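Reviewer 2 asked us to include a model.

Predict the structure of this chain.
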Amino acid sequence: MPDSRLMRAAAMAASGATIVDVTAFALLSLAGVRLEVAQASSFSLAAAVAVAILWRARGTPAAAIADLRIGVAVVCALLAYALRAGVLSLLALQWGWPPLVAIVPAALAGALAGGLGLAHLAFVPRTGDPATGWRAAALLGIAYLLALRLVYLGQLELIPQEAYYWNYAQHLDIGYLDHPPLTAWLIALATSLRDGEFFVRLPALLSWCVMAAYATLYARDAAGPAIALRTALLASALPFFFLVGWLMTPDAPLSAAWAAALYYLQRALIDGRSRAWIGAGVAIGVGMLSKYSMILVPAAAFAFVLLDARSRRVLVSPWAWAGVAVALAVFAPVIVWNVQHDWASFTFQGARRLATSDRRFEFPQFLLYILIIVTPWAVAGLASSLARTRREMRAPSTSATPDPARDTARRRWWFVVVFTLVPLAAFAVPSFWSATKLHWTGPIWLAGLPMIAASLAPPSAADAASGPSPACSRGPGCPCCTR
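Predicted model (structure tokens):
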């Protein structure tokens, strides 16, 4: 945690900025300045005051034990402005509060976001553990992005795709031509409480919460709590995962089901927990009710079973087949609908994906879309973590006896590779002759999030205490985890 003197310096800057923000906004509003101009001008003045207070604190004991990262401070200010503007717009324009009243909670929200960011991220103790900074960044980032979604959830009009699925919800059925019905069911359930953009999108936010929870549990089992917390941050901040928790499209429940399936399949295949097959079956069935691309998860599971000798015994496991039966039972409404409509939905989706009459080479776009939705840095982090782990697995063993931890690390490595590359190939290959879309590969990257999270910071004592890193093949206590 930051030194108390650092906290006091940041608190002074935040409180001073709040007072200036509210006062300046009130004066500008009373002078007849438009709301948008008044709030931007008052925040700029408040930010300048905060910078002046921090600048003056350079010679204090607080500054003597820490570095003030100006770039991080600027980012904190911009993020605080986004939240503050959203709260002001929500209260004044959506809820009808008088602007002079709405500015008070808006300024407080901005000051809280900016002050916490300054205290934990911009003021960095020179002797601090990098892992401590990442824990603070993860907790603040997750809380901030959740608050940002809540504030803006109902303020922007539905995009065309959301309106399309809202129309589905007005004609409820157990199946539709181009998509399974879960998105329509969720929208209908939420809007039965009240109509409007907020309630149309509320299932997306709740689905994101489920996705983030399962992604965190999946990473915890693979690499321990320290990496799990960073994984939760990635599930909040990477472009695809941020948007999937805001826009109500089939990708929202699909991502939640995909993360749940990874968690249960890892427990079933790697940890040998037979009952996890039931959870996997439920997750896959729910995912199939969301979007047909969920079929790529059981396809990857089958490929892993064929590749991993220790997993082949699940082919005769009653628990595994019970999971298959559960998945089919959950997905049964769509099967029934297709039987009643001459397999129209299955035929439509299959023919559209495999059609060759309108050939187009879009593999470069496919690669570009990956870089957009998960960022080049995340792709590079995954590649570097996988390569580092591979090198460590090939290193000579220090023990003459078989090492179970080393074998488990090898199997976890293959789990990530298979559950990333098999679904990715299913979209990459058709892009050589047919169209591809920006969001198609989004959920696939859930499998590699712990590996990407491991690339955020070097191993620390905190990481070693919480469990083996994904880049470790020897288990807790090895030099990799304690250096």
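The radius of gyration is 25 Å. Strands lie at 66-68, 123-125. We have added this to the supplementary material.
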